[in-house]
Amino acid sequence: NGNAGFQQVLERLESDPVCQRLSLKSFLILPFQRITRLKLLLQNILKRTRPGSVEEVQATQAYDALEKLIKDCNENVQRMKSTEELIYLSQKIEFECKIFPLISQSRRLVKCGELTALDFNNLSPKWKVTTRPIYLHLFNDCLLLSRPKE
């Protein structure tokens, strides 16, 4: 989005009839869609092969290899999404001292959300309760509490 030249070239390429008006995202997703279609094709082949035949053994080996490939692809996609979340979060959070590296290969965000902190003022004769928002970020290896900048 920040590179106007890239955006212009991308728009020109996407409007080209050769691309059939498909976006760049669709071309990036296409290989994953083909892999899942191959899995369906192999399932149908396995249904129609004779049990115990050489073709069944080969189709089963191909199916198992494809299953492993799909599993690896899904794990890598999840890992990249997790890393993107950490990068986005590290851009939003400002530490007073940089002793805590938020982005790590092994760290992933499990859950995050806004909470309300209640402060009781014991000094006043009447119980006065004030609230302020805080954010909870639960990672697989630590818990981070943050508050909006005032």
UniProtKB/TrEMBL annotation:
Domain of life: Eukaryota
Alphabetized SUPFAM superfamilies for the sequence: DBL homology domain (DH-domain) (SSF48065), PH domain-like (SSF50729)
Signal peptide location: none
Gene Ontology cellular component terms for the protein in this record: cytoplasm; nucleus
Originating organism: Melospiza melodia (Song sparrow)
Xref: PANTHER family: DH DOMAIN-CONTAINING PROTEIN-RELATED, GUANINE NUCLEOTIDE EXCHANGE FACTOR
PROSITE patterns (alphabetical): DH_1, DH_2
Name of the gene encoding the protein in the UniProt record: Arhgef5
Domain DH: 1-76
GO process terms (BP): intracellular signal transduction
Protein name: ARHG5 factor
